[in-house]
Amino acid sequence: MMTDPKRLLEENGDALESAMLRSVRGDGVTPESRQRIFAGLGIVGAAVTTSAGAASSIAAVKSGLFQWTAGAAMKWIAISSVALVPAGVLVARSYRSGATREPVPTVQPAGVSRNVAEPIQAPIVDTTVVEPAAPAAAAREPKRSPGVQARTLSDEVAALQIARTALAQRDPNAALAALDRYKSHYASGRLSPEATVLRIEALVQKGDRAEATQLADRFEAQNPKSPYAERIRSIVRGAGNSAR
Amino acid sequence: MSGAEPAFAPMLVAGRTDLGTPSLAPSDEKRFRQIVAANLDFVWRCLRRMGIRSGDVDDAAQQVFLVVASKLDLVQVGSERAFLFSTASRVAANSRRSVHRRDEALQQMVQGDVSHDPTQEELTDQLRARALMDGVLSEMPSDLREVFVLFELEELPVAEVAEVLSIPIGTVGSRLRRAREDFHDRVRRIKAMSEHRGAGR
Asked: Torsions phi, psi of A44, nearest 5?
């Protein structure tokens, strides 16, 4: 049987070469990226964790320390997705009491690198699937008040994801239509500020800079300390630069 | 590849065409979930190492899996990784063509128009090393880069590299040899330029 050659890193070669080869070892999908990609693929509710965080997360859950409420988690993730990750949206965790779970196999991706810190895909206990557009799920689990809140927020996230996807596809009209639907469904939605940011982006993309600026000014006046203020200014400023 | 379905079993939302994912029959949906779960890390790393910038890798990975979803019936069981890698290569190539950008640090070094010339010590800095690696990989011919990424960085055995690329083992060996020569040459040039600038100070 043929023996594989040694890898360059094993050959004690040049210091710069070794540094360059070692520099890629940290590559890996973050939990946030994983969520984004799953959400973008229409896959929802995937539990994710990292190799560093997996053990502690599971240990925390088992010892009853897992106190992160679904609402807080989802809000945080949703905000992160709008403020920090322009092309994606994240679907969050919700606690579903009494949910039955299958035995937990560790997923070992086939043929993955042996030199990279692998995210361990061990599921997080008490993390479960949220299906934004599945009324049947509600019927299956009528007694789930924490989940109801989670579902609503999850629905909001999903609704905004449609707008975000349209923006990524350079279809501002579809994005605006999705945002109109969001507004009609969630007049006092918890992600209203995020929706406004997306609307401003959509208006800019559509070329309607005047309305974008007007909306941005109004938002800033009403929310002077909003973490989105700078982002909104940046969007409008970018539109101004590209118009010149 | 691993066919084990994860316990967290992500669920496709039926009919969510608004998200760009084709509707799949239940059996295909299950297979698609398995493919994504088993290969997301591999695809993500390969894309990153084939020149996609970190901020763009998520979208590129998503694009790869959307292609898989749309052509699932063409993906032979057991050959999923080969299909994924070849799709990822194309996505990365398209991205490079459309974006056509190189790492700023390397570009500055090559063009010599930097106000601050890097020293040899600075070159060993982790970030700079990564920037240099990205630059070298982006300039390597694609057939060599694929073998280099899979063997040297993903650390796949030669036989598996051959399987993923659907090429003979002998071809993997010859490409690997040329890829290493290419890598050594480029690193030598980088060092020569750096030393030249260091001496000129």
From this structure: -125, 160
Residues from chain A contacting residue B38 (CB–CB below 8 Å) = 107, 109-110
Pairing, β B11-12 against β A43-44: antiparallel
Q: Which amino acid appears at position A68 of this protein?
A: W
Lowest mean pLDDT among A36-45, B103-112, B152-161: B103-112
Whether the Cβ atoms of residue A150 and residue A70 lie closer than 8 Å to each other: yes
The mean per-residue pLDDT over the stretch B116-124 comes to: 47
Radius of gyration of chain B (CA): 20
- DSSP tag of B23: P
Give residue B59's region: left, alpha or beta (phi > 0; psi -120 to 50). alpha
Q: B45: closest CA among B37, B54, B32, B33?
A: B54
For residues B19 and A161, is the Cβ–Cβ distance under 8 A?
yes
Report the b/e string of A16-48 with b at 16+ CB within 10 A.
bbbbbbebbeebbbebbbbbbbbbbbbbbbbbb
Backbone angles phi, psi at A141, to 5 degrees: -130, 80
Is the ipTM reported for this complex over the cut 0.90?
no
What digits encode the pLDDT tens for the residues B24-70?
778 888 899 899 999 999 999 999 988 888 778 888 898 899 888 88
CA distance A181 to chain B (A): 14
Structure pTM? Answer: 0.49
**Residue B58 touches partner A, C-beta closer than 8 Å:** yes
- Is B11 strand, coil or helix? strand
Interface mutation target, options A34, A43, A130, A164, chain B, most CBs of B under 10 Å: A43
Q: How many CB atoms lie within 10 A of CB B160?
A: 19
CA distances from A182 to A189, A193, A236 (A): 8, 12, 22
Q: Among all chains, which residue has been given the structure tokens 């994983």?
A: A34
Sign of CA dihedral A27, A34, A118, B50: negative
